[in-house]
Amino acid sequence: MTHPIRFSLNGEPLSAECRADMTVLEWLRDEALLRGTKEGCAEGDCGACTILLKRHDEEKYGPVNSCILLMGQVEGAQLTTVEGLAASGPDGHEVQRRMAENGSSQCGFCTPGIVSSLAGLLEINGDPTESDIHDALAGNLCRCTGYRPIVEAAFEAAKANIGGLPTGGGGEANTEVGIVESTCHAPTDLSELVSLKGQFPDATLLAGGTDLSLPVAHARERWSHTILTRNVSELRKINQNSEQLEVGGAVTWQELLPYLHQHWPSFATMVRRFGSTQIRTMGTIAGNLANASPIGDGAPALLALGASLTLAGTGGERDLPLDEFFIDYRKSALATGEVIKSIIIPMPKEHEQFRVYKISKRYDQDISTVCGAFNLTIAGDIVTDARIAYGGMAATPMRSKDAEAALVGKSINDETIASAKLAVRSTFKPMDDMRSSAQYRSTVAANLVDRVALDIAGETVEVMAL
Ligand SMILES: Cc1cc2nc3c(=O)[nH]c(=O)nc-3n(C[C@H](O)[C@H](O)[C@H](O)COP(=O)(O)OP(=O)(O)OC[C@H]3O[C@@H](n4cnc5c(N)ncnc54)[C@H](O)[C@@H]3O)c2cc1C
Ligand code: FES
Ligand code: FES
């Protein structure tokens, strides 16, 4: 049966009869014939395809990569493309006008994506700093112009105090959309989600799709059944008390950021380098863990923080320490039919010092070569507890219990740092790959012990690209 996908595009309510696994970019360009939105990389990296998305339960638009956004994901949502921005004022959107006046565009291929990202920024922050503007542009590559005139255009548009983006349409989301060949189920409660997983064991369980949808965009992979986690109410919650922060299995990195700023600023600094705003607007914490990727950035930080998971399946719910979740290369302890209901992070305790460092070739929008996370409890000058975890060093994200043992019960001095560094080197036999040699990984992972020691002593500042 066909269930048209209903959404609004540039303020106009629409309904599309199409495959649920069609990319929004493909639909915009080939079906709606709106070709302002461009395709560059088709994998979420270049930002040429950026559009603005406001889902049925959101108050503000956020920028997303339409090349890896699927039509099934926009049921009930509002979309604004560069054409909608152009129609939002007599001379286009303020950002467009200022970009034109400032010579912020040359070949113009990146420009619709850049305009969309900046319009999205001004929607949530009318008085951005230069750093906010750089963050907003981290997922938009411009190969010709140089970013200075683009940043200036953003400042000028902000000062002009522009009005809002197109609104209208969208609304309630149906729980099943698409056509017979490709359907998307969007359950609204956990029991429904678990039962759909039982009913369609081969269906794709999709959260933000920032990992999963790449083969759809690139290799035309096709999905007959998709089950979306996004609308499951139990998975959308963030509960905080004095003991723990419970983060639902469909919460995005962008939604988590304010909590990280408040409780673990170093984690927040790292997450601002997690993909781009576009990626963080869609990508979830649960998706990052369920991948069981050795280079996912969430895992080392959450391992060091002592996080645990609540998993839900047909047999009920169970709690599992994150330590026991990663079994092998890209293999997790999730049983068939199980989903991550929530991620539980213990609140910081007295004397705890948490730091996480991402080492990548580029500062922004790059996957980690190594990611090291340290959670040290230091009473007086003695380390009374330590949890140290790395990504990029083994087949799974992993703690170095030897490095932890080298520090606990001791004060941090040259001798204990040297033995912790040796322990890090002996714990891991990292891989050689295109990102780096094994030797580089070992050296940099050990050197992060120096860095955390200096950092805790107040002797370092946040370092740009390493
Ligand atoms: C351009 C780009 C940049 C990126 N940068 C980074 C980066 O800097 N650091 C980094 O770590 N990653 C990065 N990623 C990878 C990706 O964005 C993250 O891993 C993200 O957190 C995945 O979340 P998602 O919601 O998009 O997962 P999806 O792609 O929707 O799903 C990923 C996997 O998780 C499963 N899953 C999702 N939710 C659940 C659940 N509740 N229960 C059980 N299984 C579930 C899915 O079935 C699938 O197997 C990047 C990706 C792109 C395209
Ligand atoms: S086309 Fe490059 S991010 Fe979408
Ligand atoms: S103007 Fe050519 S890529 Fe930006």
Describe this protein's structure.
By secondary structure, the protein is of the alpha+beta class. It folds into 4 domains: 139 residues, Beta-grasp domain (Ubiquitin-like (UB roll)); 71 residues, DNA polymerase, domain 1 (Orthogonal Bundle), CATH 1.10.150; 114 residues, Uridine Diphospho-n-acetylenolpyruvylglucosamine Reductase, domain 3 (2-Layer Sandwich), CATH 3.30.465; 105 residues, CO dehydrogenase flavoprotein, C-terminal domain (Enolase-like, domain 1). It contains 16 helices and 20 strands. The strands form 5 sheets. A 5-stranded mixed sheet has the order 2-1-5-3-4. The chain has a 5-stranded antiparallel sheet with strand order 10-11-16-12-13. Strand 12 and strand 13 form a beta hairpin. Helix 3 packs across helix 6, helix 14 runs antiparallel to helix 15 and helix 15 runs antiparallel to helix 16. The model has no long low-confidence stretch (mean pLDDT 95).
Helices and strands in order:
Blueprint (H helix, E strand, L loop, with lengths): L4 E5 L2 E5 L7 H8 L18 E5 L7 E4 L12 E3 L1 H5 L7 H8 L9 H14 L5 H8 L10 H12 L16 E4 L2 E4 L4 H10 L4 E3 L7 H6 L5 E4 L9 E3 L3 E5 L4 H11 L1 H7 L5 H6 L2 H6 L7 H7 L3 E6 L2 E6 L4 E3 L2 E2 L6 E8 L5 E8 L10 E10 L2 E10 L6 E2 L1 H7 L6 H14 L10 H19 L10
Parallel strand pairs: 1-5, 7-9, 8-9
Antiparallel strand pairs: 1-2, 3-4, 3-5, 6-7, 10-11, 11-16, 12-13, 12-16, 14-15, 17-18, 18-19, 19-20
Helix pairs in contact: 3-6, 4-5, 9-10, 14-15, 15-16
This protein binds flavin-adenine dinucleotide and FE2/S2 (inorganic) cluster (2 copies).
The site of one FE2/S2 (inorganic) cluster has 12 residues, from loops.
